[in-house]
Amino acid sequence: MSLPLFETGLYGRLRTLAGHHWHDYVAHEFVQQLGDGTLPEPAFRRYLTQDYLFLVHFARAYALLVSKLQNLPEMRAATASLNAILNELPLHISYCQQWGLTESDVTQVEEAAETVNYTRYVLDVGHSGDVLDLLTALMPCVAGYAEIGLCLLNDPATVFEGNPYAAWIRNYGDEGYLEGVQASLTLFENLAAQRGGESRIAELSSIFTTATRLEGAFWQMGLNAKS
C-alpha cells in the first residue's frame, strides 16, 4: 500500500512554511496522550462532540468546493470527499455512543468557540476566495490527520494494549482512507498548477498556517476539558 506524500509539491512547501505551528499541531499534547493512553476521558468526549459539529461544517465547505470546480474529474474527486464525510457522520454517532454519549448529546451540544473560529474561517475563505484558497484551508485537516494517525501507528512509543484510544488510532491506517487523502493531495497539486499556486505562495501560506493554528487550538479545546 502506497502512503500519502506529505513532503512534496506545494503542499509540502506550505507545511514547511507553517514552521512550529505545524509541529504544535501534529505533535500536540492531546495527540501524545492519545498515543500513550493517558488522555483523560472527559477530554476525549469533549473532542468527540465538537468534532461531529466540525464535520457538519466541513461537509458544507466541501459542498462549496464542488460548486467552485469547473470540470467533471475534479468535481468527482471533491464529491467523493464530501460523500466520505456525510457517510462518516452516522458512524461518528455510533462511535460516540460507545463513549456514553447519546445522539442528543452530540447533535445538540453548543459549539465551542474553537469550533466556530475554525469552521467559519474555512467557510469565509471559501466564499471570499477561489477554489485553491478553499482547498488550502481544508488541507491541514485532510492531510494533517493522516500524518498524525500514521505517526501514531508507527511510533514505538504508542501503546495499543489496554489503550482506550487504540481503535481511534487504527482507523488512520485504513487503506481506503489513505487513498482518499492522496486523492485530495493530488487534486490540490493539480489546482495549484492550474491557478498559479507558486506565484501566490505568500497568500496561500497565510491561509494554510492560520488553519494549522486553528487545528492546534481545536486539540487544546479538547485537552482543556480534563474533568
From TrEMBL:
Per its UniProt entry, which superkingdom is the organism in? Bacteria
Main EC class the enzyme belongs to: hydrolase
Q: Which UniProt keywords apply?
A: Hydrolase, Thiamine biosynthesis
Instruction: State if Magnesium is listed as a keyword.
Output: no
**Alphabetical list of Gene3D superfamilies matching this protein:** Heme oxygenase-like (1.20.910.10)
Pfam families with a match to the protein in the record: TENA_THI-4
Gene Ontology molecular-function annotations: thiaminase activity
The pathway where this protein functions is: Cofactor biosynthesis; thiamine diphosphate biosynthesis
Annotated ranges, domain Thiaminase-2/PQQC: 21-224
Q: Which SUPFAM superfamilies match?
A: Heme oxygenase-like
Q: Which reaction does it catalyse?
A: thiamine + H2O = 5-(2-hydroxyethyl)-4-methylthiazole + 4-amino-5-hydroxymethyl-2-methylpyrimidine + H(+); 4-amino-5-aminomethyl-2-methylpyrimidine + H2O = 4-amino-5-hydroxymethyl-2-methylpyrimidine + NH4(+)
UniProt EC number: 3.5.99.2
Which protein family is named in the record?
Belongs to the TenA family.
What's the stated role of this polypeptide?
Catalyzes an amino-pyrimidine hydrolysis reaction at the C5' of the pyrimidine moiety of thiamine compounds, a reaction that is part of a thiamine salvage pathway.
Protein name, as recorded = Aminopyrimidine aminohydrolase
- Gene transcribed to yield this protein: tenA
